[in-house]
UniProtKB/TrEMBL annotation:
Keyword Lipid biosynthesis tagged: no
InterPro entries from the UniProt entry: Coproporphyrinogen-III_oxidase (IPR034505), Elp3/MiaA/NifB-like_rSAM (IPR006638), HemN_C (IPR010723), HemW-like (IPR004559), rSAM (IPR007197), rSAM_horseshoe (IPR023404), rSAM_sf (IPR058240)
Family per record: Belongs to the anaerobic coproporphyrinogen-III oxidase family. HemW subfamily.
Protein name, entry field: Heme chaperone HemW
Organism listed in the record: Schleiferilactobacillus perolens DSM 12744
Function, in words: Probably acts as a heme chaperone, transferring heme to an unknown acceptor. Binds one molecule of heme per monomer, possibly covalently. Binds 1 [4Fe-4S] cluster. The cluster is coordinated with 3 cysteines and an exchangeable S-adenosyl-L-methionine.
Gene3D superfamilies: tm_1862 like domain (3.80.30.20)
Length: 381
């Protein structure tokens, strides 16, 4: 069974650190985008009649920037075209300032959305201003209270650390305020400076002060200890959940399973076919107006790449890579493919290997990219 990701590329403001595929919503053809997105789903799913959908995730951009009427039309179409099994996970990403009234929340509930992922990032209003966010800490409390009133229980909050102007004490305070809301799932990421962002340009002009690498490592360590102490186990490098609340959708990515990607700039991966849709809105809409799929590039993923990805992605999860699943999928053992790489990394205390599962150690989590690099087959002896 596959996952389905839908991209809504519109935002009401542009955050200074963000390089996602998104545009400022004002003046954009949002209504037509919804129509064409549903057409894309219809065209693509007709090509894969034997690929039932297990989870739906609507991300962005800012899906909650749609009006309730636009959201109602989108979700009506999604339910018709991507029917989910009973109680399957159906997630929408939201910004806190779109949940200050009940309107959208009621639309979500009416259409079977059962999980919210909310971009909070920080509880320090000065830091929020510095990174270009428009919500404030008090909005976060209102948003989650409203969501609970609407009946949502399965909710996640994103926090970012190593932000400009953020001290470790600020981050500690954000963790404490976050946990006071008592959600079953949190995700926390370190700021990454990406090209084509305001922060990247400021950095190049020597005008961006970021906390040091040591502070970043301390903050990550603090988050891991903090969530563990509050009963949220780490199940992936950046994700923490109460038992039973791990994201089913995201786990499908890390298990290297199939997913549909719909919308401008979305990526999909079906039967070894990796495809990438046009990113700019007009380029995405144009082929759909002619009843054609808006795919910009396709690549058949080689078995070697699939094996590399099975390792990188699997190692992101605390359960790690399952040797049995690997052998079943590829007809070869991890050692057949990667030689002594696992044993070498175990010796360097970056991996654990209990004979069945290969996983990152705590030390390995700090050096994830260095570990993943070792599984590039060109580099394996
Ligand atoms: S971080 Fe989210 S809200 Fe901010 S610009 Fe990027 S997609 Fe939009």
């Amino acid at each position: 069974m596959a996952a389905a990701y839908l991209h809504i590329p519109f935002c009401e403001h542009i955050c200074y650190y963000c390089n996602f595929n998104k545009v400022f919503i004002q003046g954009q053809p949002v209504g037509e985008y919804i129509t064409r997105l549903l057409e894309e789903i219809r065209l693509v799913t007709a090509q894969y009649p034997d690929e039932p959908i297990e989870t739906v995730y609507i991300g962005g951009g800012t899906p909650s920037a749609l009006t309730p009427a636009q959201m109602d039309r989108l979700l009506t179409g999604v339910n018709e075209l991507l029917p989910l099994p009973q109680n399957a996970e159906f997630t929408i990403e939201c910004n806190p300032n779109n949940l200050l009234t009940m309107d959208l929340l009621h639309v979500f509930r009416d259409h079977g959305v059962n999980r919210l992922s909310v971009g909070v990032q920080s509880f320090n209003d000065d830091v929020l201003k510095k990174i270009g966010r428009t919500h404030r800490a008090k909005d976060v409390y209102t948003a989650f209270a409203n969501a609970r009133r609407a009946g949502f229980e399965n909710m996640s909050m994103d926090l970012i650390y190593r932000l400009p102007g953020q001290t470790q004490a600020d981050f500690t305070d954000s963790l404490k305020q976050a946990i006071s809301i008592d959600l079953p799932h949190y995700a926390t990421y370190s700021l990454i400076l990406e090209q084509r962002t305001v922060f990247y340009n400021l950095m190049r002009a020597g005008k961006l002060q970021l906390p040091s690498d040591d502070t970043e490592a301390d903050e990550y360590e603090e988050a891991m200890a903090f969530f563990a102490a509050h009963g949220l186990h780490q199940y992936e490098i950046s994700n923490f959940a109460k038992p039973g609340f791990e994201s089913v959708h995201n786990k499908k990515y890390w298990q290297n399973q199939d997913y549909f990607g719909f919308g401008a700039g979305a990526w999909g991966y079906l039967d070894r076919d990796r495809y990438h849709n046009f990113g700019p809105i007009q380029q995405y809409l144009a082929p759909l107006r002619d009843n054609k799929v808006p795919v910009f590039a396709r690549q058949l993923v080689s078995p070697e790449e699939q094996m590399e990805e099975q390792m990188f992605l699997g190692l992101r999860m605390n359960t790690g890579v399952d040797r049995h699943t690997f052998a079943q999928r590829f007809g070869m053992s991890v050692e057949d493919v990667f030689g002594t790489t696992v044993a070498d990394l175990v010796q360097r205390r970056l991996l654990t290997d209990d004979g069945q599962h290969i996983a990152l150690t705590k030390r390995g989590r700090f050096m994830g990219n260095d570990v993943f690099e070792q599984f590039l087959l060109d580099d394996v002896d």
